[in-house]
Amino acid sequence: MPEKQPQLNGAYYGPAIPPPTTHQKHYHRPGRGSGCGCCCCLFTFLLKIILSIIVIVALAALIVWLIFRPINPIKFHVTEAQLTQFNLTSNNNLQYNLSVNITIRNPNKKIGVYYDRIEARAYYEDTRLDSKMLTPFYQGHKTTSVLSTSFEGQQLLLNEDLQDFNQEKTSGTYSVDVKLHLKIRFKLGKVKTPKLKPVIKCELKFPADSALTTATKCKVDF
Description:
InterPro entries: LEA_2, NDR1-like. The chain contains 2 helices and 11 strands. The chain is of the alpha+beta class.
C-alpha cells in the first residue's frame, strides 16, 4: 500500500538558489599617484647609487691614505741661505737679495714622490717679496734632493711691516720666511695617489752683521 505524502501547510520553499555569477570588470584610472610613485622610486634608486659611490670613494681614499702615507715623513731643511742685501730706502722700499738651498729627504724604502708643481715664495712679515716656479721632478726611495732658488728686487713696506723692520734693525736680527707651495703625488709600485697640496714653511733668522743663517728645519702643513 503506498505511503501517504505528508501534507504541507502554506507555501513550500526549497533551498535558496544562488544568483547567477557575474564578472564585474574593474577599470583603474591612471592618476597622479602612479606617476608620483614612479618618480619617487627613481629618485630613491638614484640616491642609493650616489650614496654607494660616496661610501666607496671614501673607503678607497681611506685605504689609499693608510697604505701610501709615508711611514717616515718627508723632511725639509734650509741648509744654506744668504741675505746679501736687505736695506730700506728713503721712500720705504725694501731692497733685498736672498738665495736659499732647501734639502728634501725621502727616508722611505718603498715610496717615491712626484713633485708636480713647486712654487717658492719669499715673505717679510705679511708682505710677499717675490715668487719663483721651480722645475718639477721625481724623488726616489731613500734619496735626498736639493732645491736652489734666489729672490732679488724691492718691495714697498707699509704700516706694521715698516714698524717691524725698524724694530728688527734695532734688535740686530731680521726674519724672512720662505714657503714652498707644492702639488705632490706618492708612488708605490705602479700605483700613485691623488695630488696633495702641502705648504712648506721655513722661518729664517739673519743677524744684521752676517749674510748667513744656520740650518733650519721647515714645517710641513698638509
